[in-house]
Design a protein that fits this description.
Chain lengths: 164, 262
């Protein structure tokens, strides 16, 4: 079944996030949230509102592991809301959006643009809500830039290896 | 009416988005900055168990240094027992616990320990280790608890100088887990690097005299009425493995008295 395979992949990515990437301590500014890959690569087949609910659920699961109830959920809901509009902006051929979104179906250039727009939005939301104060704005921006770059590199790297 | 429905249908996705975000923000507002619900946090048995398993594996890599620390601590404890005031011994009860998870590199750090309500842990109790103060119990689950360490930007700890009775408030600025700042120390007080900072004993959380740190440097700018003091913390949070929860037998009574004043 395609759905069970998909679900299995989600579990693997979430485990990687919790067991490996959440333990990273590189200078205190590197917190790549690679789990957004699950959300970004979902095909656009379900209604938009259902997509957002899925985003909320995945975000809440992350929140439980990060002791940050609601913060990841807010970030995930936001990118799930923006996703169809961003895709509409960067792709002309919308035929293949009902398949999994990857380098193979929408093209490498579009994939990089798509990931590079949505990942920083998600990371900025999560870090800004986590800090919950303007006093740390510089630190939040630095954290967003460093972590986003690493997340984007990992997602694009995985894509180019998996869907050559 | 029909136009209203049309508008609603047209913007239904945006309305769903707004509703979900509002729900998420309510959650954040309710929980910020620390998890209060023991189910949806690392005080949850399943989540804490997972962290504990990781620790079981990584724990083997620093057994030697841990043993040395334990031996040192045992010796220090024996010395303390012989010197201990018998009245305080009855009032304060220590429960040892293992740290199963902790962060040191975020603005809101927290740590999870493997003792919970079934071991008598309650919200608001103090946590220390052999070196000094660690933090305060925040969320209590059945088998695990979440501790708010002093290296969290929201923690305030009442401290005083060991050499005299001047009181200050210890706060963390979110940068380095080895240092914190002591505020509210008036300018006329003479502060020297190397001065020892201990807990003040003004709150029921900690007894008086638990070591906190030593003054690294202090700055007094022209016109300031308070010192800016940098304190090197005794507790090494990067290597924290075992802690003790301080249970004050009089805590409930003291808190009730304080609440009665309001």
């Amino acid at each position: 079944m395609d759905w069970t395979k998909q679900l299995g992949r989600y579990v693997v990515v979430m485990l990687l996030q919790v067991l490996l990437f959440n333990q990273l301590q590189l200078f205190g500014v590197c917190h790549p949230y690679i789990y957004v890959m699950c959300l970004l690569m979902m095909p656009i087949t379900l209604p938009h509102s259902v997509d957002m609910v899925i985003g909320a659920v995945i975000g809440l699961i992350m929140d439980v592991f990060c002791n940050s109830l609601g913060i990841h959920a807010a970030g995930c809901i936001l990118i799930m809301f923006l996703r169809p509009y961003v895709l509409g902006m960067i792709i002309n051929d919308k035929e293949r959006l009902n398949e999994q979104i990857n380098q193979h179906t929408i093209g490498m250039e579009a994939m990089i643009k798509y990931v590079a727009i949505l990942v920083p939005i998600h990371h900025l939301t999560v870090f800004a809500l986590g800090a919950w104060s303007w006093a740390h704005i510089g630190f939040v921006m630095l954290e967003t830039v460093v972590s986003s770059l690493i997340t984007i590199a990992i997602i694009i790297g995985y894509n180019s290896l998996r869907y050559r | 009416m029909q136009t209203l429905f049309k508008i609603l249908a047209r913007y239904s996705n945006f309305l769903v988005f707004l509703a979900l975000e509002v729900a998420a923000f309510l959650l954040i507002g309710y929980n910020n900055p620390y998890p209060r619900s023991s189910i949806l946090s690392t005080a949850n048995d399943a989540v804490a168990w997972q962290h504990e398993q990781i620790n079981e594996i990584t724990g083997y890599f620093n057994l030697r240094s841990q043993n040395e620390l334990l031996a040192e601590e045992n010796a220090a404890l024996r010395n303390q027992i012989s010197a201990m005031d018998s009245a305080e011994q009855v009032q304060m009860h220590y429960t040892s616990a293992k740290v199963v998870q902790m962060t040191t590199h975020e603005l809101h750090n927290y740590l999870t320990i493997n003792k919970g309500s079934k071991d008598g842990i309650q919200r608001g109790q103090g946590v220390r280790n052999g070196d000094g103060v660690v933090g305060i119990i925040r969320t209590v689950g059945r088998n695990y608890s979440v501790v708010l360490p002093i290296i969290n930007t929201q923690t305030n700890l009442s401290c005083r100088f060991a050499k005299n009775d001047y009181i200050g408030t210890l706060q963390w600025d979110g940068t380095d887990s080895r240092f914190a700042n002591l505020t509210d120390v008036a300018a006329h007080m003479v502060v020297n690097p190397g001065d020892t900072i201990i807990t003040s004993g003004l709150s029921p959380v900690f007894p008086e005299g638990i070591p906190v740190g030593i003054v690294e440097n202090s700055v007094l700018k022209e016109g300031d009425s308070y010192h800016t003091i940098r304190v090197r913390l005794h507790t090494n949070f990067k290597r924290l493995k075992y802690v003790e929860v301080v249970q004050n037998a009089h805590q409930t009574e003291l808190e009730e008295l304080a609440n009665g004043l309001d």
